[in-house]
DNA sequence: GTCGACTTTATGTCTGCACATAATAATCCA
DNA sequence: TGGATTATTATGTGCAGACATAAAGTCGAC
């Protein structure tokens, strides 16, 4: 067996990845325990542990106490997706960022929203509609409901100057959230806001946030036609 | 200052998260260095380091040598998205999984594909079209091109029995890949395959994989109307 | 004053050791 | 034989100490 001199845990990670990719350790294969690997690599077990844990986080390895470590049968299931901050995303593309508040008002929330916000049916919530512009053109249409039981102060915020998202980030902490991606047909209202044809396919990102058990907000971001959200593995 | 007895790095992570959420450390705020935190928490610096690193990985903190650690201005940008294995996704929903090969043949690849596969324009590639069924109904339509310069053996694979994805996972290792999500209008061909109306909005996942500098495959998965890809933060 | 070289500092990582924990394997007893 | 108890084992985590490294700050030469 070839001696593999390793310096850092990243080097070990790379070597393990290489062995997986070259099928030295095919999917499903058990790999030697940390102590043996540490001996082989000439380093401390802690270092091996760190490398393997990182790979397990990525979903490349599956580890169980006592059972040991094995190569995941379905590699590459987990991807780190950076949810772009709209402003940054636009500015990085070189276009100027613009923001336009369409309206913000307290309204009786539709049943689906009351359900999502966990408020009694018919409760009022704060509705915010806004447009994010790239180079003066509509880029994302934002449709948001804010739970005024959790965040009453939003009603006094000047959302024409600061986007609801930025305001919430600074004023309403949250502990967990959900995200979903879907495709949706542009109806007349959406088409008008995004100045695109009715019937276009829009990429939709829906986000809900909670602070503990309290629901904060629920937002839908409709991206203009042709938008792609990209990431790499 | 209140003494915070901490047991594990997860507890420290939780405490730091709490301080961020409650604005004790607002966005942009510098936090004490690891040594001071270790003293405060009554643990080793290693333990603090681990907690903070985990938070930095999540995008909650920004760390730079010498500069120190600060609360990220734009929290929660990074999300771990588990790309569902179609078969598992369907089986988990309780529906039976079905797979149907539509066709697999060597064809001159369109320019966009040659470009993506990094082969000379007009080169032939292996085209695979297939359908994944949930409970007998079309769920995902898969349109794939495989680089036969990198993976010639795919031409002899029996893709009626094993999906191209599974075959590739077992036979063609890759070192990196790209993913993109978008929304697309169902044209006649797509509508026919997915038995949905022409003009439906389809969620589209496009994946490209490479082994080193060699391109392996490029696939598009078209999900039926109404599909949502979900994750939580 | 400006540019480089040196110092300082906070994080990054490694080591060796110890003990905790989960899950399997082995054993024991009814 | 079968079910519960105990041992074994691989990973999970903690600690103290050391050195590495990047980057900000400082100081000196010109």
Overall strand count of chain A: 11
Oligomer: homodimer
How would you classify the helix and strand content of chain A by structural class?
A: alpha+beta
Largest sheet of chain A: 6 strands, antiparallel
Strand order of the largest sheet of chain A: 5-6-7-10-9-8
pLDDT averaged residue by residue of chain A: 88
Helix content of chain A: 25-40%
Number of domains of chain A: 2
Instruction: Output the number of helix runs of chain A.
Output: 7
Corresponding CATH architecture of the largest domain in chain A: 3-Layer(aba) Sandwich
Given as residue ranges, the uncertain stretches of chain A (5+ residues, pLDDT < 50) are none
In angstroms, what is the radius of gyration of chain A? 24 Å
CATH homologous superfamily placement of the largest domain in chain A? Chorismate lyase-like
Could you explain the architecture of this structure?
Two copies of one chain form a homodimer. By secondary structure, chain A is of the alpha+beta class. The first copy, chain A, folds into two domains: about 10-70, Arc Repressor Mutant, subunit A, CATH 1.10.10.10; about 85-225, 3-Layer(aba) Sandwich (Chorismate lyase). Chain A has helices at about 10-20, 35-40, 45-60, 85-90, 110-115, 165-170, 190-195, and strands at about 30, 60-65, 70, 80, 95-110, 125-135, 135-145, 175-185, 200-210, 215-225, 230. In chain A, α1 crosses α3 (about 45-60). The two termini of chain A are about 30 Å apart. The model of chain A has no long low-confidence stretch (mean pLDDT about 90). Chains A and B meet through α1, β4, β8, β9 and β11 of A and α1, β4, β8, β9 and β11 of B. β4 of chain A pairs antiparallel with β4 (about 80) of chain B. Chain A binds a DNA duplex (30 and 30 nucleotides) through α3.
């Amino acid at each position: 067996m070839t001696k593999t001199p390793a310096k850092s845990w990243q080097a070990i990670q790379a070597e393990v990845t290489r062995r997986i990719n070259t099928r030295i350790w095919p999917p499903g294969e058990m790999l030697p325990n940390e102590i043996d690997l540490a001996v082989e690599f000439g380093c401390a077990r802690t270092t091996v542990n760190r490398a393997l844990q990182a790979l397990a986080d990525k979903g490349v390895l599956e580890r169980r106490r006592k059972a040991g470590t094995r190569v995941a049968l379905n590699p590459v299931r987990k991807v780190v997706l950076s949810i772009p901050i709209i402003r940054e995303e636009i500015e990085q593309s070189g276009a100027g960022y613009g923001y336009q508040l369409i309206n913000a008002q307290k309204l009786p929330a539709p049943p689906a929203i009351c359900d999502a916000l966990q408020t009694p049916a018919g409760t009022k919530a704060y509705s915010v509609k806004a447009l994010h512009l790239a180079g003066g053109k509509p880029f994302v249409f934002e449709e948001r409901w804010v739970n005024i039981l959790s965040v009453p102060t939003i009603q006094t915020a000047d959302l024409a100057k600061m986007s609801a998202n930025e305001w919430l980030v600074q004023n309403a902490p949250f502990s967990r959230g959900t995200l979903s991606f879907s495709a949706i047909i542009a109806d007349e209202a959406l088409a008008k806001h995004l100045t695109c044809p009715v019937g276009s396919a829009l990429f939709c990102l829906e986000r809900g946030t909670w602070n503990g058990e309290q629901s904060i907000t629920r937002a839908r971001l409709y991206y203009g036609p042709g938008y792609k959200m990209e990431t790499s593995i």
